[in-house]
Amino acid sequence: MSVIYLIMPIALLMGLGFLFAFVRTTLSGQYDDLETPAHRILIDDELSTPPTPNDKKGNA
Amino acid sequence: MQVEASASLAAAVAEKTCLHCGLPSSGRFCCKGCEWVYSLLQEKGLSDFYRIRDRGRSIRKSGPALVREDNTDLYGHLDDPAFVALYATPAEGDSGDRIMQFYLEGVHCTACVWLTEKVATWVPGAKSVRLDLGHAVATVRMSATGSFAQVAREFAKIGYRPHPVRQDDSLRLETRENRRALIRLAIAAAASGNIMLLAISIYAGATGAFAKSFEWISFGLCFPVATYCAYPFYRSAWAALRSNALSIDIPIALGLLVAFFASVASLAIGSHHVYFDTVSALVFLLLSSRYVLRKTQQEALHASRLVHFLTPSWARRKVASPDPSSAAANDRFEEVKTDDLHEGDRILVLAGECFPVDGVVRQGISTLNCSLLTGESRHELAQPGSLIFAGTLNQQSPLEIEVRAGASATRLSQILRSMEESLTRKAPIVAFTDSISRIFVLVSLALVAVAFAVGWHFGGVNEAISRALAMAIVACPCAFAFATPLALSVTMGRCAKEGILIKGADTLEKLARVDSVMLDKTGTLTTGDFEVLDWASNDLPTLQAVRAIESRSAHPIAQAICRYLARRQITSDESIRIEDFREEIGRGVSARVNGDLYALRSAGDSGAENEDTTQVVIEKNGKPIDRILLGDALRKDARKSVLALKRMGLRVGILSGDRRPAVLKVAKEIQIDPENAISSATPESKSELIQTLPFGLMVGDGANDAVALAAAYVGVAVHSGMEISMRAADVYQCQAGVAPIVRLITVARETVRVIHRGFAFSLVYNALGTVAAISGKVNPLFAAILMPLSALTLFASSTAGTRKLRAALSDKEGDV
Amino acid sequence: MNQPEKAQEFDSFSYDDDIVKKFVHATLIWGFIAMLAGVFIASQLANWRLNLGLPWITFGRLRPVHTNGAIFAFAGNAVFAGVYYSMQRLLKTRMYSDLLSRVHFWGWQLIIVAAAITLPLGYTVGKEYAELEWPIAFAINVIWVIFAFNFFKTIQIRRERHIYVAIWFYIATILTTALLHVLNTIQIPVSMWKSYPIYSGVQDALVQWWYGHNAVAFVLTTPFLGLMYYFLPKAADRPVYSYRLSIVHFWSLVFIYIWAGPHHLLYTALPEWAQTLGMIFSIMLIAPSWGGMINGLLTLRGAWNRVRTEPILKFFVAGLTFYGMATLEGPLLSIKSISAVGHYTDWIIGHVHGGTLGWNGFITFAMVYWLVPRLWNTKLYSEKLANLHFWVGFLGTLTYVISMWTAGITQGLMWRAIDASGKLVYPDFIETVTRIVPLYYVRAVGGALYLSGFVIMLYNIYRTIALAPKEVEPVVVRAPKLLEPTFEMLGRKPHRILEGLPGLFAVLSFVAVAVGTFIELTPAVLSSDYVAVNPAVKPYSPLQLQGRDIYVREGCYLCHSQMVRPLISETLRYGSYSRAEESVYDRPFQWGSKRTGPDLARVGGKYPDLWHYRHMMDPRDVTPDSIMPIYPWLYRDKIDFDVLKKKLQVMKSLGVPYTDDEVEHASDLAHEEAHRIASGLVAQGVPADTEDKDIIALIAYLQRLGADFKKGLIQ
User: Fold this and answer.
1) Which of C243, C479, C502 sits opposite A37 (nearest CB)?
2) How large is the average pLDDT for residues B41-57?
3) Which residues of B347-373 are buried (b: 16+ CB within 10 A; e: fewer)?
4) Number of structural domains in chain C
């Protein structure tokens, strides 16, 4: 069963690795807004038609 | 403007809902605002809005587009350097961009996210717009030279009224603090999860080399938990000790330190009495319950605190030009804080804005909604020389006034100060629980000593430590101390979501003790704005002409007539030619339509014997041809709700500024006996009467009854713009009428019942826990899991509330 | 007046949908082949004649084709299709490198073809779901690293700052699967197509099932949760019920790295505490799994009426419900007392197919029905057929699962039945087999139904693509540039991270863990292994080792277990329970996970050589109602004596105590032993030339199983 000394540290390292990822993402503000991402995926991509003149002119 | 027939369009017309916001409406649009936004979207090629709107889900109730009919510019001041310095923050990195945040009134669904973020594509200088739908806050990133005013105007145009939010340090501090708390919670979660697995292996029989290495690994994992994650507990315990007060964190800090160092000691000497799992489980569960608590309270506060950011705290002061007699045309105005205004200064207030200070009109004529003070349900004329009080709304055209009283001295500011103070003052019931929990701490520390002694007597050092530890953990009253404020803030948070803003936790408690309700006629019992009661003629040309003329004026009477005509399907079509449209404020409007001169004049009070109606005379080429009668209509739900209030044991009365006949007529219809119906009351008489009722609840239109609302035991302001009413009343309801009042009082009473239920549960739990801990039945690990779980169950009961509370708070019309 | 300042700048780009089309094609093709193999081996279990006596299609060699085909070919390709499609849209960027995407695609298909060839030929490592020999295993690692590199580079060039929860599930899948597969496929090659794993016995069992469970968890669960969190909201036009819940249940899953492996080894020779740990952890897994199901189902709030009409939503709802059921049934089966009944029976097969047919299958079908019309810019050929596919598939899954539950519980209880006098009610094993053979027919029917549903989909998709407009110029989309720093860039200013307290304490705790483990590690590694082995126990003789490799080659471990559990009914039926010491030299361990046939741990010496000789020729010859296939090629193929020397060298290098002399004369020793066995058999009328045939080696190995224990060498 000494293989436990191989699996155990690796399991802990994986856990710590994900913990480190969580800390960095929290610090970069990923979890400040947990409502809008769910809505944002529903918005389809915008077709890149050549910018029509009135688009760029600024406010109508 | 060719409207392409899409499926949603056909559906909208069929069910008679407004094309833009989907609410029931007579014509294609429920109001001009929606029509305006609809046409703007068509023109900018953004009609995808309606396809996205039909998918997605709205997260809060939606109203019609809040577009101001008159195109007065409310956002000019946004580009003023002083303002930008106050509200905008520089973006990270060296791009020189600036970031400003806007609270958008009216964003509620996926399509709003899409549309708001599209604004950046057509505003020059805009780099990006990101909307946080949950908090309805849009973060706008502008280039160094871009204009925030332009963005704000665009938001207003598409139907979301923007309010710049000051990014002061309390908000930034709060986000950083939230993130740090989340990181502590995550580290504790990861560590306690893994330690628990190692502990289970040892409990399940791992011995020898395995057991030793597992204990060492547990120590390694528990080290950051016991030091970094548990730091908040040590800090607050130390702060309490230093000021020799008693905080509930003392037993926790004590328990954690004893357990951790006892474990390190036994690890060193090789004994297997190790409590790393207890320490990490306790820290994790405590941090998670505190995190839940903090988030719920923040959500509740967010809605009401935001209001305080909105009050305009600055004004446009005229720059003292060298010779006062020079023509007014080239006057220049500078933006200053209202606090810096002092007597004699000249300030300019545009239409749609509130007067920040008391003063005297020097230039310009406009109608004022000075209902804040006089309680009149009609509008007053303001011309040079008339007196202006702070807080009144300038409705029609810009006015220049001379400041009479400094900002802090105005009557309004006294009301404001009392409101600030109510927010900070704790509810009596919370103060009570704090004192009880302090006694609890003393008792629990004593019990820990007892447990240690009993343990020592029965089983030596280890038994003593284990029992003392279990006692310290079980007896901690944090469930007891937090459940009460949690229940209050959960209700306030839920009410905020339902459009009911409650100022402070103590208001909720006072609401539960209210015994009598005084309702205001205009706006609460009646619909509050003009309705056409009688207009016989149906000669089409006149109707269309009136419609064309009236749709140009912003006067409330004009809007009432337009609504009435819209209900009769008289739409303004393009064929009508209108020339020299003239509107004399206070007397009426006139215009030449298809060659004929039409004039509509208000003929003053009809003086008819039964109610206070207004008559508008229609003259064609100088000859009166018709007469329109306008007045106030009773609200549908009024009678049923008044009955419900009486069944709840409340005395109901009417307190209105209108004249006796109108008040009596309404009183008769909703079965309130005449002596409870007080009429033609001035603001001062209203507040004196309210003060005679020790536990009186005053319901009124936020603008008209502000003084009485402020003086009442509990003031509920209804549906008249958030800024004004939140200054005067304790509660602001966006739904008018009496039914919401019934709901409000039920909610308050049920919340108090939930709090009492919490008291009972934690008392029983602590008693049982103490007995079990002292008798050694409960070991520290079991206690470390039991105690936070009991706290969580108590929090769950506070959050869930009672069935009646949930029913009252959930929107009757089912989930949006 | 200067030119008006530009508003928000945009990048124009187009998504790489071609790679998604490729993976969808692969999913459909391999899905059909894997399911066809499944139905075929199911019918082989019902009627042994379908093995046709051919080595390449006998159950032992075809079953790994089905399992590897279904998991890595069907589910694998489906996951890749979903990841490539959703990831580009969520991150608003094209893949980092189109070349690497193609290399990943063709590499993965090549691996599958290699597996489809080598497995029927008998080249297998002998560990479930990790059967592929070392060259293919190595290729999998390489292709996986290429995919991971392309994946993480695409994340770095993204235009959307927030990383949606589906992407986090993909990240967890990539990282953990890579780690697991590498750790479980460390093998020393003997020849091009033969290798021995470095772990043995109980160690190999723990690492194998640590990998085995997580092949299920991180190949069949987390990626599909990611797909669900993207495709369900898109199909239902509803944001996910609670985005906060999805974040919580993701992070709670990955912080505590998966320890559920041991629940495959309950009541085996694995140490008691490891079994309890596996049990308790599996029960804890209910929370994150059900978090995912509840979040998915409640997303449909307000759209339930559409479930009645739209097949895609039906698939999602049924898939999520099966996911909830399977992830509740699994933890219950992990409870030791229930595992005592369920382990080694068909109940486990019912649980597996509740999850795979129900959850993985239905989510993949929903995704394909949603994706194909969009990829080929057309409408689905027929909604009616899709609905038909749902009902046929649903019926097929229910038939399959219920028949296996019935068979499993019946057999489990019959094995345990003891009458008042303490004797087994069903002493001979065959009684328990004949009782459930009819259910094997029902299961085959269920599988056939599911396959026919799949064929309906194939036809439907084929017609959809056929009617699609021929060439569709790629859609060019635009998205604003990303201005704010992303969390990787956060690292650009390292001091900001470490100066924060979390960094300091993370380092401190790591040091503490390292010191603690080191203090413990040195004594444990130096001291004798946990399993103190009696030196008198000799490793396998060269001939027995060759026989063992034949046992592994024919996949005998797929129907026979070698692990007697410490339960009364088992010790009565098979003899004393198996000790860890007995399998200390077994590379790979052959404890097995299914008893279609009886346990063989104590079969050594139980029957004479001739019995085995006749039994392998035709099992019905000695057990009339046996459903075991016939193995005629064992009497034709010759034993490869030359490779034995190399095999013993490799075993010796892995620590097996062979003497140098034994290694040197391996083939001579084998010849002697073969001659001894053959002469005994020839005396009883067996043809003289069988001395060098595979059957002799197999008999040598079978007679060795449990022999040391009977000689009293192992207590």
Assistant:
1) C243
2) 73
3) bbbbbebbbbbbbebeebbbbbbbbbb
4) 3
Whether residue C183 lies within 8 A of chain A, CB to CB, comes out as: yes
**Would strands B126-132 and B137-142 be described as parallel, antiparallel, or unpaired?**
antiparallel
Inspect the interface and report whether the beta carbons of C163 and A30 lie closer than 8 Å: yes
Contact A1 C203 (CB under 8 A): yes
Q: Is C487 on the interface with B (CB under 8 A)?
A: no
Between CA C464 and CA B349 the distance in angstroms is: 66
Interface check for C477 against chain A (CB to CB < 8 A): the answer is: yes
Domain identity same for C430 and C507: no
**Which three-class secondary structure state does DSSP give residue B654?**
strand
Alpha helix ranges (H) inside B394-539: 411-424, 428-474, 478-497, 505-513
Q: Are residues C687 and C595 in the same domain?
A: yes
> Which residue's entry shows tokens 């006067």?
B555
**Which one-letter amino acid corresponds to residue C332?**
L
* Chain A residues whose beta carbon lies within 8 Å of the beta carbon of residue B217: 8, 12
- Whether residue C4 is contained in a domain is answered as no
The torsion angles phi and psi of B57, rounded to 5 degrees, stand at -140, 140
> What tens digit of pLDDT does each residue of C415-435 get?
999 999 999 999 999 999 999
pLDDT at B170: 65
Residues C592 and C60 sit within 8 Å (Cβ to Cβ) = no
Helix extents (H) in C285-382: 286-299, 304-309, 311-333, 336-342, 346-353, 362-375
Query: How many inter-chain contacts (B to C, CB under 8 Å) are there?
Result: 130
Residues C272 and C319 in one domain: yes
Shared domain for C404 and C275, answered yes or no, is: yes
State whether C505 and B141 contact (CB < 8 Å). no
> Which CATH number do you get for residue C578?
1.10.760.10
Tell me: do C204 and C147 sit in the same domain: yes
Cα→Cα distances A28→B10, B229, C284, Å: 46, 20, 30
Mutation test of the interface with chain A: which of C5, C163, C174, C487, choosing the one with the most A Cβ atoms within 10 A? C487
Lowest mean pLDDT among B532-546, C292-306, C422-436: B532-546
Q: What is the mean pLDDT of chain C?
A: 89
Residue C480 lies in a domain: no
Name the domain boundary from C453, C468, C483: C468
Beta carbons within 8 Å of B578's beta carbon, 6+ residues apart: B548, B549, B552, B591, B592, B593
The confidence band for C632, taking pLDDT boundaries of 50, 70 and 90, is very high
Of B189, B197, B206, the CB nearest to C281: B197
Locus of tokens 């946990």: C530
Gap from C245 CA to chain A (nearest CA, Å): 10
Q: What is the DSSP letter of B321?
A: -
Q: Which of C4, C513, C519 comes nearest B124 by C-beta?
A: C4
3-state secondary structure B575-600: CCCEEEEEEECCCEEEEEECCEEEEE
Residue A46 sits at the chain C interface (C-beta within 8 Å) = yes
Closest CB from B110, B191, B193 relative to C239: B110
Angstrom distance (rounded) from CA C666 to CA C668: 6
Query: Does A35 reach chain C within 8 Å, measured CB to CB?
Result: yes
Does B45 sit within 8 Å of A59, measured CB to CB?
no
Q: Which domains does chain B have, with CATH numbers?
A: 7-167 (3.30.70.100), 333-419 (2.70.150.10), 488-527+635-750 (3.40.50.1000), 531-631 (3.40.1110.10)
Note the pLDDT of residue C675: 94
pLDDT tens digits, one per residue of B5-15: 344 444 434 45
- Residues B96-143 have pLDDT tens digits of 888 888 888 778 788 888 888 888 888 888 888 889 888 788 888 888
- Comparison of pLDDT for B77 and C182, the residue scoring more: C182
Residue B306 above 50 pLDDT?
Answer: no
Contact B127 C8 (CB under 8 A): yes
